[in-house]
Amino acid sequence: MKLSDLKPCEGSKKKRKRVGRGTGSGHGTTATYGNKGQRSTSGGTKGKGFEGGQMPLTRRIPKRGFRNPFRREYALIKIGDLEAFKGKETVSIQDFLEAGFVSNIKDGVKLLSDGDINFPIKVTVHKASAKAIEKIKAKGGDVEVLI
Questions:
Q1: 90-91 and 109-112 beta bridge pairing
Q2: Which residues lie below 8 Å from residue 147, measured CB to CB, with a gap of 6+?
Q3: What distance in Å separates the CA atoms of residue 120 and residue 85, rounded to the nearest whole number?
Q4: Full domain range(s) for residue 130
Q5: Host H or E run for residue 1
């Protein structure tokens, strides 16, 4: 027996049905899609969310308010969190990532005024509240706002 003598078993390989190749093939004209009806023409499927003519769920549920597509979401840092950097002179966004205060920067890092501080420090963030800047400057520190 040689490799060239090998053949598949009788009846194990079926011939592929070739549709839409003329009337002589037996599967021409309608190409096995039938004569009429939704599925017989091209594009004959309903869209995602179609419920058989019933009012779709997305249209039945009431909509409220406005979703701003340009909304910016910031990772928040509180002044109380700066206690972890007491020995440092300056703190940057990279320091917040390494310390674990921020895991995802999102659209930037914002400094909020929650908590107290009792040492001077220079903080670099994307945004800061007016009260947070006031608290840090009162202790002799500084806030550098990026962007």
A1: unpaired
A2: 108, 126, 127
A3: 11
A4: 75-145
A5: none
